[in-house]
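**Tokenised fold:**
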Amino acid sequence: MQNRITELFKIKYPIIQAGMIWCSGWELASAVSNAGGLGIIGAGSMYPEILLEHVKKCKAATDKPFAINLPLLYPDIEKHIQTLINEGVKIAFTSAGNPATYTQLLKDNGITVVHVIANEKFAKKAEACGADAIVAEGFEAGGHNGREETTTICLIPQIVNAVKIPVIAAGGIGTGRTMLAAMALGAEGVQMGSRFVLSEESSAHQNFKDAVLQSTDGSTELSLKQLTPVRLLKNKFYDAVKQAEMDCVSKEELIALLGRGRAKKGMFEGDLEEGELEIGQISGYLKNIKPAAEIIKEIVEEYNIALKELETKKL
């Protein structure tokens, strides 16, 4: 399959692995890129010196393109950007911030910029700021999410109609069939996070992976809406957040409850009770852990099978 996304990133398949904090280091990014997709190093959970180490190791592990996810609210974001420039990384996925702040700087240094959005307003803003593509992330996605709670099936066609640059669909996509559905809605690529959490190369703790495997439909919920909405796997920490929200506690009390290092504690260190476990709604039907290359192979095969099935059902 060749389209604007494969041409933009110089990849074989329009499959992008999300830059997830604590789960997507150089091992996963290089494995996805070597398999024909676009691997992303999640810089949001890395100190500048750690990101530099991951970039160097990724460059040594693959000669294929890979990207860095840059949450723009990260305290040392300028150091991260300098790492991309110094190391010759050619693709940046920006999120959680104003695309006007750094898009031009990145582009001036020869870096392709993709911005993650959850509504039409910021899609248009990202395009106006010079972004080369957009990730439109629906309500189903794991981790930090849009306040609008717009589902992927509603969001994608809306964004496709609103902008001229290519749109990558995210949120609730983890199989070839859901990829085909996203493409039918007008997307030219898909970004998957939860599916790649359950890869052998993911840096997620095995306890977290096991918890995802055991989840069912309804095991996640969008929480912390007073702060930044985040989809969590239900556990003891989630229960505390839920109770606090039902008690209508202040924003300051929620911040105190969240504390520091909750995501690391849960996803990276494997504390299933007190940790923050960020995962998407599709966790309910993810039932195996595989190498990233096998995941991509499976997605492509299922996509092609589903496409042929549809061709036999023409009206």
